[in-house]
Every structure is written in structure tokens, then in C-alpha cells.
Write a structure and sequence with these properties.
globular, about 260 residues, alpha+beta, 5-stranded mixed beta sheet, 4-stranded antiparallel beta sheet, 9 strands
Length: about 260
């Protein structure tokens, strides 16, 4: 089961939330799904250098709220918010709406090493630059474990190092309980387009077990929303809250063990 089911899809409504939130009739549903897909594809292409992990789309009362989760908010916003306004206009045109009805929010990912999608994309960029695949895998695993993850698994498939026969290689450290629904497992998929073919990279990161709703709400609020006009926060102040969720997760696990 663990190898055949998408780890995010199977946890929807348990520990994960939907990336698109809206309600539509049977006639409108396919069109809105396709529009969401095109918006995500467009934004991913436009912000290829901005380390975008996830794009959340919310529709309510003929208005659209789009939240871009990125590790480099400065690149998305641009000087004096010029880039984000231009991006907002292009997105509104794609959606067939006015600029007033489309809102772009930027959410900063404080620890990109703990985001599976960003880890997978960084490995794919290294592979495209002809870095040895084993070195890229081990470097990613080490940095993720150092950042406080409880486990990570990286799997690569394709013509590794340009070999004639395609094969699969994987590397794992720590625990990856894929069958446990309460396990907070982040999953990312990226493709490295090399001269000798496409290499697929899959990353699973285990961040701990979720036991109650309060813990879920804390995890959802962790990526701090950064508005276009907001001033940058100083580094020492930002470092303290980032460690709190990890400590809370370990405390919750410890209390569960004592109770057992």
C-alpha cells in the first residue's frame, strides 16, 4: 500500500488539507479544475527561480485568492512590489477576471530543507548540472536530517549517470511510516531533464506524528504569510518560533509513549 498510493492524497482530511478550495456545479467543475491546473502551471513556469513549493487556490463570491508558498519571497515580490502586481495582472487575464477580483498572497517557507518538493527540485537542478547523483542524494538527506526531520527517503529512477539501462536507486535515513495515517509525511516529485533522458526524483520526509487538532492548526499556521508591503523580520526573532513546532511534536510523541 505504501508504495502505490500518493502519501498526500491518502491523508487528505486527516493530516493534510486540499490545495484547491471551492464549490461548483457539475457543469462548471471540469472547467474550474482545468483552470486551476493552468494557473499552477503558469505560476510555476514564471517563478521557476523562486523555489515555489505549493500554490493554494481559494474561490469565494466570484473572487480568487491564490497563496504562493515559496522559500524566496523577495524574488516573487520584486522591487517595491512591481513583479507581484505584474504577475497578478497576468493571472487575472488567465482566469478571465479583473485584477480587483484576484488576490495574490506570498507565504514564506522558513525551512526549505523540510519541504519535500523543494528538496526534490534542488536534487533535479544538481543532476542537470552533472553532479553525481549519489552525492546529490546524500547531501539532501544530511541537510534534511540536520534540520530536524525524523526520517527521509529519496528515490531516483532513469538513466542514472547516463548508463544504457535505466534503473532505480534509493537512499533512506530515519523512519518513514507510510502506512500510518497520523504520520505527517511530506511528498515531492521532480524531473531532471538531462541530455540522456528524464530522471525522476521522489522525496518522502517524515516530520512527526499528529495527535490532535491543535497540533494540526499549529502546523497550518507555521508558514508565515508575507504580504507584499510587509517589512522583512530580523533573523534572530524568526529563529525562535521555528523550533517550537518540532519541540511540541516531540513532546506530544513522548506523552503518547508514556500513556501507552
Amino acid at each position: 500500500m505504501g508504495q502505490k498510493v500518493n502519501p498526500i492524497g491518502i491523508r487528505l482530511g486527516i493530516t493534510r488539507d486540499w490545495t484547491s478550495k471551492w464549490y461548483a456545479s457539475k457543469k462548471q467543475f471540469p472547467l474550474l479544475v482545468h483552470t486551476d491546473f493552468r494557473v499552477r502551471e503558469f505560476l510555476k513556469k514564471k517563478l521557476a527561480d523562486a523555489s515555489v513549493s505549493r500554490i493554494l487556490i481559494e474561490r469565494a463570491a466570484k473572487k480568487v485568492n491564490i497563496t504562493i508558498q515559496t522559500a524566496r519571497p523577495g524574488i516573487v515580490i520584486g522591487k517595491k512590489g512591481e513583479d507581484i502586481e505584474k504577475l497578478r495582472g497576468e493571472t487575472a487575464k488567465l482566469l478571465g477576471m479583473t485584477m480587483l477580483d484576484v488576490r495574490l498572497n506570498i507565504s514564506e517557507i522558513r525551512k526549505p530543507e523540510l519541504d519535500a518538493q523543494l528538496v526534490a527540485e534542488s536534487i533535479s537542478q544538481q543532476i542537470e548540472k552533472r553532479v553525481m547523483f549519489r552525492r546529490a542524494m546524500k547531501r539532501a538527506v544530511m541537510s534534511t536530517m540536520r534540520s530536524g526531520a525524523l526520517g527521509i527517503k529519496v528515490r531516483m529512477s532513469g538513466r542514472l549517470n547516463g548508463s544504457e539501462i535505466a534503473r532505480t536507486e534509493w537512499y533512506r535515513e530515519g523512519r518513514i511510516p507510510l502506512h500510518t495515517f497520523r504520520a505527517d509525511i511530506d511528498y515531492g516529485l521532480a524531473e531532471a531533464k538531462t541530455t540522456y533522458g528524464v530522471i525522476g526524483i521522489k522525496v518522502w520526509i517524515f516530520k512527526g506524528e499528529v495527535f490532535d487538532q491543535a497540533q494540526l492548526d499549529r502546523q497550518a499556521a507555521e508558514p508565515a504569510a508575507v504580504e507584499a508591503a510587509a517589512a522583512a523580520t530580523p533573523a534572530p526573532a524568526a529563529a525562535a518560533p521555528a523550533a517550537a513546532p518540532a519541540a511540541a511534536a516531540s513532546a506530544g510523541t513522548a506523552s503518547a509513549e508514556v500513556a501507552g
